[in-house]
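Minutes, project check-in
Item: structure for the 179-residue chain
Input as provided by the requester:
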Amino acid sequence: MPRARTPRRQVAAVTALAIAVLVLLVGVVVGAASVIGRVTDDEPSNISEIVNSVATPSTTPSPEPVGCPVTAGDQSSGEGVIAAFEHAYYSLRSADAVIAVMAPGAVSYSPAEVQAGIDSIPAGTTYCMTVTGVSAGTYALELTETRPSGKGASLFQRITTAEIDGRHFITSITDAEGI
C-alpha cells in the first residue's frame, strides 16, 4: 500500500517547485536583459568599420549613383557636415579631409590609420545616403555603398555633431544597426 504524503513532504515538494520556478524566472529576466543590452549598445566603431572603405588615394571623385545625388557637404549644419565626411571618405579619399570635419579630440586614429580605412574600399565605390534628425545634434545615417564589382552594402550609424565657432563638426559615430 502506497505511503501517504506527510504535510512535511508536501511542503518540501511545493518549496522545491517554487525554487525551480524562481530560478527559471531569473534566467528568463537575465537572458532578456542581455539581449536588450546588445540591441541598444552604442559602442563606437573603429574608423575602418565606420565607413568600411580600398585602393590608392585619388583626387578624382567617384561618380555618384544614378538617382542618388550626393553633395560635397559643408559645415553649416549637422546634415552638411555628415555629407562632407562621406564625400571626403568616398569621393576625395582623403584622411586629412575626413579629420578636418571631426571635432577636436573626436578622432583617436592617426591620419595613416584613417587613410588605411579609406584604402580598404575600392576606388570607384559609390554611395547613397539618407540622414534623419533624431534630436538636436544627433542624426541617423543610412548609407548604401556600391562597389565597382556591383556588390553593395548598407551601413546604419548614429552620428552626433556640435557647432563650434559657427561651424559644425562630427563628435562621434557609432553603429546603429537597422535604425
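Outcome recorded: Residues 11-65 have pLDDT under 50 and may be disordered.
No further action items on this chain.
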